[in-house]
Amino acid sequence: MLNRRRLLAMGGGVATAGGALLWWGQSAAGAETGASAAPVADPHAHHGGGAEPTPAEPTAGTGAPPPYTAFSERLPVPRVLRPVSSLGDTDVYELPMQHAKAEFFPGRPAPVLTFGGQFIGPTIRAKAGRRVKVRYVNRLDRAATVHLHGGHVPPGSDGFPMDLIEPGASRVFDYPNRQQGATLWYHDHTCAKEAEHVYRGLAGFYLIEGRDEAALRLPRGAYDVPIMIRDARFDENGGMIFEPSPLPTTLHVNGRQKPYFPVDARKYRFRVLNATLHRNIELYLGGLDMVQIASDGGLLPEPLPRKKILIVPGERVEIVVDFSAQAIGSKLVLTDVCDGADEPVMRFDVARRAFDPSRVPGRLRELPALPAATVERDVKLSFSPSGEEFAINDKTFDPNRVDTRIVEGTTEIWRVTNTDPAETPFGPVNHTFHMHLVPFRVLDRNGEPPLPGENGLKDTVLVRPGETVRVQATFSGYKGRYLYHCHLQEHSDIGMMAQMEIV
Ligand SMILES: [Cu+2]
Q1: Which fold has domain 375-502?
Q2: How far is CA 6 from CA 159, 163, 498, in A?
Q3: If you average pLDDT over residues 318-335, what whole number do you get?
Q4: What percent of the chain has pLDDT over 70?
Q5: Exposed site from 56, 94, 96, 144, fewest CB < 10 Å?
Q6: Cβ neighbours of residue 88 under 8 Å, at least 6 residues apart?
Q7: At residue 51, does pLDDT exceed 60?
Q8: pLDDT tens-place string over residues 69-105
């Protein structure tokens, strides 16, 4: 039997005390259908300590998933959500959270949680400087909330994990879009349930077009394609299994396993998001250049041709791929080669010649000025002192505690250190540090230069065991409470989350 520590090490979602343990006892089927009114986790339970319950044996081994033929289904592109009204400088959207079915295996509909009835949710296309308001309507059987990852938003619209939208209720969130163009995503952020909710489907893209972006003439329209990479384990009926397990996961892209995507022989802009719970992915396109043009916080200063791209949970990478030199009929497989993996992600099928007015300029943009920092802080990511939860600076999340007070407008350097082990039976204990409200710049890693592609604005960054990553941010725009946390949602669900208050 796996002990908890080992499960934690591989990113498992089981906690020893209270709420998080509730996931464990649920049968996958019961949790998916919601038929057995899912117990509402006491949001404070995982801070409580107390007697240590004995975890049940995992219910893995429910049978092999149905057979699946790679590259047999076309990549779906999530639909673009239309506003219900547009007045002045504001577009208003309505987006229900609802139960639905998804077919990860053709002909085998499986229950999922969705925004708008589809796995994955519809894409909201916003413009910098133009306000968006979204009315989220909760038609689920459970409370939930929505965080706009990468959004510069007022505190009441940030989706605080305890500030939930109850079943039957709705709430309007305000997204002013006074920020740079970038690939954002919205997803559930419910305390102690985030990992499960996001895994089961509560996520979608939110794209902000920058003010001067159109002038760059990057690929647009049908040639600008969001790609959400997720992973899952499936039962014999093709349903999702959510439980900590050392068993390998299967990747799926925009809700399909190993799909194919017919492309014209020209340039495409792909907005790639790693929305897995804890799986690092290293993209490889058979040696073809993937020209990175953007990271979490929007365009890089200049394009960066890459053969392999590491992308960790929560991160976004935008690439331009030029298929114009490929023979019609050729098929290019995008593969995950992280840590010796060799798993197809999807396949591009070059279908026909096409006119291509797009280009990738040698300069993409000037990054905003980086004011000198006046405050430095240490942020330690590690197992909690008990060794049974995850913590930031040895404290697990407490919604009633402010961990960091920051004077509005201040520029700070945070030294983010991962002190967890590099070697466990399931590999190194990585963390991905994510800050709400503002993007940061990555200054260095253990004093060495940042990784390729980390020279732009970011909001999520890999911190490997033994590593100290220095990031610099200016905390401006709003006052109030915001989170910073590990974006391995199973880690944040069991404590690895903290609060900052901008004052
Ligand atoms: Cu973590």
Answers
A1: Immunoglobulin-like (2.60.40)
A2: 31, 32, 24
A3: 98
A4: 88
A5: 56
A6: none
A7: no
A8: 999 999 999 999 999 999 999 999 999 999 999 999 9
**Distance (Å) from CA 486 to ligand 1 centroid:** 5
Burial class (CB in 10 A: 0-12, 13-18, 19+), 502: buried
Mean of all residue pLDDT scores within the chain: 89
Q: How far is the CA of 281 from the centre of ligand 1 (A)?
A: 16
Tokens 């030029």 -> residue = 322
Q: CATH says 85-214 is which class?
A: mainly beta
Ligand 1 center from residue 209 Cα (angstroms): 30
DSSP for 235-264 reads: -TTSPEE-S--SSPPEEEETTBSS-EEEEE
Same fold, 85-214 and 375-502: yes
Q: At 149, list the tokens.
A: 């990852």
In the block, residue with structure tokens 């980390």: 454
Q: What is the largest CA-CA distance in the chain?
A: 67
Paired tokens of 266: 């020209």
Contact between residue 419 and residue 459 where contact means Cβ atoms under 8 Å apart:
no
- Distance (angstroms) between ligand 1 centre and the Cα of 149 equals 17
The pLDDT of residue 248 is 86
pLDDT of 160 reads 93
Q: Name every residue whose Cβ is closer than 8 Å to that of residue 24 and which is 6 or more positions away in sequence.
A: 14, 55, 56, 58, 243, 244
Q: What is the pLDDT of residues 199-254, one digit of tens each?
A: 999 999 999 999 999 999 999 999 999 999 999 999 999 999 998 777 889 999 99
Buried b (16+ CB within 10 A) or exposed e, 402-421: ebbebeeebebbbebbbbbe
Q: Where are the domains positioned within the chain?
A: 85-214, 375-502
Whole-number Å distance, alpha carbon 430 to ligand 1 midpoint, is: 6
Q: What are phi and psi of 302, to 5 degrees?
A: -145, 155
Give residue 358 CA to ligand 1 midpoint distance, Å: 39
CA 301, 306, 312, 318 torsion-angle sign: positive
- In angstroms, the Cα distances linking 28 to 58, 120, 327 are 11, 20, 45
Q: Find residue 188's DSSP bridge partners.
A: 146
Q: How far is the CA of 18 from the centre of ligand 1 (A)?
A: 20
